[in-house]
Design brief:
Number of helices: 10
Shape: globular
Number of strands: 10
Bound molecules: adenosine-5'-diphosphate
Radius of gyration: 25 Å
Helix content: 25-40%
Length: about 300
């Protein structure tokens, strides 16, 4: 009897010791991975005597830029000039390299050869922070945090007041849906904004860009993933955002970029046509084909 009583008393603690050993090992494996990420060195390096860019004055220029992610060449011999104040649109079949071309400007990737210049100086010579501070980037996959709407809009900024956040939300056509949310600007939007619709997420990231008030805008336009009502609202918000700025727009709907100063048609990593809407629609080529396809 004595043996049985002791045995039943010892069984549970013995099991607990063995599960805790398993948990400790799981934790150790996870911490190795976490420290690997913390210790990883950024691939994009800043030179020691890097310059502060301050203000964007004249132009962004691509000179003979080539780029590949691995073996496969994604951009070949890109030459392009975007002058201050212009709206330049990139169009072409998907997978052609439009997003990659736009990602090279904030130095998310480094060209394999060739150079990108801002105001005549290679972007490698600028401090990364000051280069990226010039730019507002709005993509379809908005980066949102599990925090309040106000904090998501003002993310990364120190000196702002609530009235500016509200003004930015109004420009971005987001104020109305925010006011309808349970706690207005204090509503928490869930991990990656899961409590919002696609169009609402995009308008929040537009509001963030409006508040940042950047000189250069890089936009990935709304696609058919949005219903036509929210697409109209997003499109209006983007038009408001582009006023008085220099913009590079990755366009999916040709109807929205007819007023662009320059349209650049990219196919298989090469620029195959450049011109205004009037010029390109009169030329036989890919732009004309895309126009015909989208007119249905
Ligand atoms: P677009 O914006 O015109 O649709 P992308 O620039 O997204 O084109 O893609 C161009 C090519 O580069 C595609 O073949 C795509 O598969 C490839 N690609 C895009 N991003 C990456 C990446 N991060 N790693 C490897 N290949 C990529």
């Amino acid at each position: 009897m004595g043996f049985l009583i002791i045995f039943t008393q010892v069984l549970n603690p013995a099991k607990a010791i063995s599960t805790s050993i398993t948990n400790i090992n799981k934790g150790l494996a996870a911490s190795v991975r976490i420290f690997e990420i913390i210790d990883s060195k950024p691939e994009i390096k800043e030179s020691e005597d890097a310059l502060d860019i301050g203000e964007f004055k004249k132009s962004i220029e691509f000179k003979n830029v080539n780029f590949s992610y691995g073996q496969e060449q994604v951009l070949s011999d890109i030459n392009l000039k975007i002058k201050k104040g212009e709206i330049v649109a990139l169009v072409g079949p998907s997978g052609g390299g439009k997003s990659t071309l736009a990602d090279l400007i904030p130095r998310f990737y480094e060209p394999n050869s060739g150079e990108i210049l801002i105001d005549g100086v290679g972007i490698k010579n600028y401090k990364l922070n000051s280069l990226r501070a010039l730019m507002g980037i709005v993509t379809q996959e908005s980066i949102l945090f599990n925090d309040t709407i106000k904090n998501n809009i003002s993310f990364g900024l120190d000196n702002f007041d609530d009235s500016k956040v509200i003004a930015a939300a109004k420009v971005a056509n987001a104020h109305d849906f925010i006011m309808e949310s349970p706690e207005g600007y204090e509503t928490v939007i869930g991990e990656r904004g899961t409590k919002l619709s696609g169009g609402q997420r995009q308008r929040l990231s537009i509001a963030r860009a409006v508040l940042k008030d950047p000189d250069i805008l890089i936009l990935d336009e709304a696609t058919s993933a949005l219903d036509s009502e929210s697409e109209k609202l997003v499109q209006e918000a983007l038009t408001n955002l582009m006023k008085n700025r220099t913009s590079l727009v990755i366009a999916h709907r040709l109807s929205t970029i007819q007023n662009a100063d320059k349209i650049i048609v990219v196919e298989k990593g090469e620029i195959i046509q450049t011109g205004t809407h009037e010029e390109l629609s009169g030329q036989s080529g890919l732009y004309q084909k895309l126009l015909k396809m989208q007119s249905f």
